[in-house]
Amino acid sequence: MNKRMAAVAAVGLAGLVTGTLSVTQASADPSGPPQYRQLAGVGSDTTQDVMNGLANVITIGGQKVIGSYDATGSANITTKATGCTIARPNGSGAGRTALVNSLGANNGCLDFSRSSSLNLAATQNGLTYVPFAVDAVSYALTPSSVVPRKLSKADLTAIYHCDPNYVGSAPNYDVTPLLPQAGSGTRSFWMGQVGITEADVTAGNYPCIKDAKNGSPVQEHDGRVLDDKSIVPFSIAQYNSQASQTIADLRGRAILGTIDDLAPNVLNSNFAIKRDVYNVIPTSKLSTAPWSTVFVGANSLICQQPTVINTYGFATNAQCGDTSKQTP
User: Fold this and answer.
1) N or C: which end of the chain has fewer CB within 10 A?
2) From CA 187, how far away is CA 86, in angstroms rounded?
3) pTM for this entry
4) Contact 246, 309 (CB under 8 A)
5) Per CATH, is 2-14+137-259 categorized as 3.30.1490?
6) Is the CATH number of domain 39-133+276-326 3.40.190.10?
């Protein structure tokens, strides 16, 4: 196994297609009239850009209806005209919590949240996870990394379990597996893939894992955190749309690794580690416009935008608009 870690595989990222795209970069927070939209949403870093893109093209009666607020930016956001200035939620978990809090307070400040992971826990009552696209996740590394560019899922599991054959003290094998910030959907999805839990991380069961660098949390899909002895999970859709300049390029020196001999590709549909991505809406609103018009069913306004979804690096989802995934 040490030999496997010692050699940097000289394999390019075959299948990484970053052709010219026709959709310009979407604004970080809602821009243009109306200032406040009927459907205000927060949450996932992974899907913020595609939702911003959809918000710019989806209208009802000639008016934009989706207000999608980025995971990072100003400390606070204002989502509605009166009484709705809140701390900006960073990540899927924080977005869901903010939505639940808004629903509990019945203040109308938030109407949906973005999520790159599925969480049907009973603590989040009355929510429906509506899939709209497919993403895949690989590991990112630097071109001069000690980590090979080709690994198996079993290799990645061993690395995140601090297997000494991978992350031991030998000078060339001291690999640091990174996780994105707490509350990140990519963090929880990746941990599920490699067989670890938040409880494991909190208890220090795998001390080689880090989720901060230089005192700051590791923000998901920002390759600038990497050095030659670290890896981090990275959305392929995010990577490809950053590479094509569809969204801001935060890759730094990051490249994507190949998992189980399947290279990253622009539509992700056959990749080894893939996931549905969701918009989370109140179950009580499934039959109520504009939630029903925008999110629900194969003919919903979001599901009618495959070109925008593909432009931001995601694959279309055969279950787009499905409402079967509900919390108790």
Assistant:
1) C
2) 24
3) 0.87
4) no
5) no
6) yes
